[in-house]
Specification:
It is built from six helices and five strands. It is an alpha+beta fold and 189 residues long.
Length: 189
């Protein structure tokens, strides 16, 4: 069983690694850098900026692009879940607050730049689970009684947003251009 799980996770890791965006200068991994407003804006729809900032892990060059469809997907997921949760809509705040706290203070020393995007996707999957269980007048809360089914649903709803976010992040980066070092914004990292 352990070998089977290790093989499964190795294949998933290899697949997700293929979804990383590459630097146009050196071919290294290009990761988005999030300011505090960017992190809040991925869950709460607020038009704070039209640009996203990226940094290459290998050469350190910084790039700027227009915000991509990843942002729209995360914002739409949050708003939809918040609306579906009804009287439990305050639960929707658990995900952005968890992400802000963990990425800002807890994980600041040991998180890589790519962890921010994946963490937002994982929390979106958890938000979907919360919406299924508590939303719609708790009509589907009985799923908690079925451990195996709930585990498989949780597993699928956490992996699906990760896959979607990485896919959208790689293929919907518009207007990527190198950003001069002297004018690079403070991204909070």
């Amino acid at each position: 069983m352990a070998h089977w799980l290790a093989t499964l996770f190795d294949k998933l890791d290899a697949h997700f690694t293929n979804l990383t965006r590459h630097c146009p200068k050196c071919g290294g991994e290009l990761h988005r850098q999030f300011s505090l407003l960017d992190k809040i804006g991925l869950f709460l729809p607020m038009p704070h900026t039209i640009y996203a900032y990226h940094r290459c892990e290998q050469c350190g060059r910084r790039f700027r692009s227009y915000r991509n469809l990843t942002d729209l997907f995360l914002e739409a997921s949050w708003v939809t879940c918040c609306a579906y949760l009804g009287e439990f809509r305050l639960l929707a705040l658990a995900c952005p607050l968890t992400w802000l706290i963990s990425s800002r203070w807890v994980g600041k020393a040991n998180w890589s730049n790519s962890a921010d995007t994946v963490a937002a996707a994982v929390l979106t999957g958890i938000l979907w689970i919360l919406a299924i269980v508590f939303g719609g007048g708790m009509k589907y809360a009985s799923i908690l009684k079925h451990n195996v089914l709930f585990f498989l649903l949780l597993f699928a709803l956490v992996l699906l947003p990760i896959w979607l976010v990485l896919l959208l992040d790689k293929y919907t980066t518009f207007g990527l251009q190198e950003y001069p070092e002297a004018n690079t914004p403070n991204t909070g990292h």
